[in-house]
Design goal:
single chain; mainly alpha; 17 helices; 3 strands
């Protein structure tokens, strides 16, 4: 079979040529022997083959078309890191994208990288290329790329972006992992209660009725609840469905979102932790953007656009207006209940020393370390609390069922 290939040589230049080989594996081996890094291999259309690469291409043609909008953001840190490595070795942007196009495993990401490469080869900048795919690359990403291209520090900027993506993923995975065990315990407790209400309590009710036992108040209450739930199961399910739908619609409304965003920060334990996580993200974004030569006003505006809580959006709007008027950032932060006064004072120190980017990054690192500890502590506290709650529920049911048994034993005695 004849293979048309594109490959990078040792100097990073793109080479186009053909090979006559038996299969695709032999083509890779031959290119490796020649000291070339394969970027693209295509079978010559004038010499089709029913196996090897031809079979693979046929399977690809039968698959649904790739959609760059479906490219998962989970692969963004890896793409960014690999792009940074290629650029640091002196490989130009377009050949770097061509090499990554060959390496990525996802079809959607492959199509996305292909389109990025095409836009760059047509004379566009990498920043404008990524900006046209906002589903994957947010405005912060494209702005930092633009700053890197303008200052000639694109590899450094890409490394910072990879660090930002990794940090965001780490915090998200930390929170998710912390909630898995409590959610599992809650699910088990709910299952146990359902089994008791629908299967265990009705059988004991029949026994108590047959024996004509005088029941204590707790047992009567449990049996009444079980009887009510079993007789009105459909009505309860419909009611829960209607209530759940109404709640979801209310929370999706503007006022509903504001109500949740305002009150979730007031929760006794979770509120301060959530504030600290959001503050760490704000400081990290402003710090990275400032260190990447993005103007401070634009850094604040981009950070504000990434916020989902309107309280923080309003605060950053005031900070932006204050800086635009020639004032300092820390004045608004000192007035806000969202930023601790000690942190606002550190921001003031960074402004006075013209090191706002470095100070913001240090604050973000410090807050992230504290947040990791607080999340672990909160998880360790929640687990025994849920276990105790489960024990109380099951213990109450068990005692309520055992008490009539004691009365039976007294009667028989």
């Amino acid at each position: 079979m004849i293979i048309n290939y594109q490959a990078l040589n040792r100097s990073g230049m793109l080479v186009n040529d053909t090979l006559v080989v038996e299969n695709e594996s032999e083509a890779f081996s031959e290119l490796k022997r020649m000291g070339l890094v394969p970027v693209r291999l295509l079978e010559d259309s004038e010499h089709p083959s029913s196996e090897g690469m031809g079979g693979m291409l046929s399977r690809l043609r039968s698959a649904p078309p790739a959609d760059p909008r479906k490219a998962s953001r989970r692969e963004l840190p890896l793409f960014t890191e690999q792009m940074a490595i290629l650029l640091e070795t002196g490989t130009p942007v377009a050949p770097s994208l061509m090499a990554l196009e060959r390496q990525v495993s996802s079809r959607h990401w492959q199509e996305l990288v292909r389109r990025l490469r095409q836009q760059v080869e047509e004379g566009g900048s990498l920043a404008s290329a990524v900006a046209s795919h906002s589903k994957v690359f947010d405005p912060i990403y494209s702005s930092m790329i633009s700053a890197g291209e303008a200052s000639g520090t694109l590899p450094v900027i890409l490394n910072r972006l990879a660090q930002l993506s990794r940090q965001s993923d780490r915090i998200r995975h930390k929170v998710i992992s912390a909630m898995i065990y409590p959610a599992l315990l809650t699910g088990i407790a709910t299952t146990v209660v359902i089994v008791l209400l629908f299967f265990v309590l009705p059988r004991f009710a029949a026994i108590f009725t047959e024996m004509n036992v005088k029941l204590p108040a707790s047992t009567k209450s449990l049996l009444a609840i079980s009887d009510f739930v079993r007789q009105h199961t459909l009505l309860l399910l419909v009611g829960l469905g209607v209530a759940g739908s109404a709640l979801i619609l209310a929370l999706r409304s503007r006022e509903g979102k504001r109500f949740v965003q305002r009150n979730v920060l007031k929760l006794p334990i979770f509120g301060p932790l959530l504030k600290s996580i959001i503050n760490a993200r704000i400081f990290r974004l402003i710090g990275l953007l400032s260190e990447s030569s993005v103007p401070l006003l634009e850094s604040i505006e981009l950070t504000k656009s990434s916020m989902q809580n309107y309280l923080y959006t309003d605060m950053l709007t005031q900070v932006h207006d204050n800086v635009l008027a020639g004032e300092s950032m820390h004045e608004i932060m000192l007035q806000s209940s969202l930023i601790p006064p000690s942190i606002a004072q550190m921001v003031h120190t960074g402004e006075e020393n013209a090191q706002i980017g470095r100070v913001m990054t240090l604050l973000a690192n410090n807050l992230d370390d504290h947040n990791d500890t607080r999340i672990s502590t909160l998880t360790n506290i929640m687990e025994p609390v849920i276990l105790v709650f489960m024990g109380l529920i099951i213990g109450t049911v068990a005692i309520s069922l055992v008490l009539p048994m004691f009365d039976l034993s007294k009667i028989s005695a």
